[in-house]
Specification:
47% of the residues lie in helices and 8% in strands. It is of the alpha/beta class.
Amino acid sequence: MLPSALGAAAGVSAGGVIAAGSRGPTLVPWPAKVRTAFPIVVGGLTCAAVALPVALGTAVVAAAIGRGRWPVKSVAAFVGMVGVGVAAGVVGRRLVEQKLTPNGRDLDPAYARPPLNPSVSGSAESAVTMAELGREGARFVGSVTGADDIREVTGLEPVAEPVRVFIGVDAAATVEQRVALAMSELRRTGAFDRSNLLILAPAGTGFSNSTPVDILEILTRGDSASVVIGYGLLPSFLSLGKVAIAAQTQKLLLDSIRDELATRTKRPRLLLYGESLGAKVQEEAVPGGPIDLDYHNIAAALWVGTPGGKVADGFHALCSQESITVDRPEEIPTVLPTTRPRVWFLEHDGDPVVRFRPALITKRPAWLPLDGTRGRNIPESMTWWPGITFIQSFVDTMFATNVKPGDFQSMGHDYRADLGAVSTAAYDLPADSVTAARLEGHLRVLETAKAELIAQTGKGAQ
């Protein structure tokens, strides 16, 4: 049989198997067009991926046996094709980065003016300009909660003005300079005089979820401060190469705050928050083996939707003695132990960002057992196929967050519906059932109002 025929037969067989298996249920819904095209595309690519090497390998062996020499030109041509493909991928990535980077600097007109509030970065008193904040930084400082928000939820008067500090990646050239700017802003705004200081690790664009900050500001009646230092302007999937420098930034910030507080008699409770890539970044910044929250005097840490993998699994294990992992607020124990958990993981059972990892290629994951109870939003009919489940889960990550402003969902990589109750519990904040209900409603109002401001300018929300 000719090499091309052998390759085609092998490719069609493999492609057919992959295409059939890829039609199964997934963790999150896909757009109808993607669902229809996926088996065809995956089957076709598999067919080509199998057919070409098989045909080439067969031709090489046949030529070597029949002619007594290797077909150097054919092999070189194949290697050249692979090289062109790799080069095209590198060039394509650079073009995407060049297109997206300016978006991270482009301010929404609704958030472009310097805030009148001196307690936030970007104001006239601040050492950081609005341009240096970037798009996400301007949104963050421009969304600080006000006295009316506090009264609406708690029924009480504010006791202080909330502080929000944001240092964009363009504010300084080095990590050390950005951290120095953040410390200067924290001192200027009186952040260390607040009872609570929340340290957030942002996503790749600089995006920092305002919801946990809103919760802290409202329930402490303004007696809080928050700080964010950016490390890039690109979406998280293009920022994985910056995890190390982002973790270095968090570590230096934590060390600087530790040194600052060592000289003060009044010290705020230190709280940590990271979501998605931000969670991964902050986890890498915390001393490990097992983790030592006492070194930086951390009162509580909340990490949400941490991307899965060996590193995340290992970190979970290091935290096992003083941590709690929940899929939703209903899993929070009614009565917490006398020694409250200091590390909280909020991770949906059916979040593909949490579940995706290379091991899916060859190993059945614990969340897809052959028998037994499955986690919430994991389809009973979903099964594990070598290679196929890996590809499905990868596509799942692309559609894991389907955000409609104000319509909070508790599924996939969308944690907005859970943050009110989980943040309140993790940070040990005061809220009876009535206050909690008002908080949930008001968080949706705040998000909707922010989205409307952004939409008026034609900018898409993060």
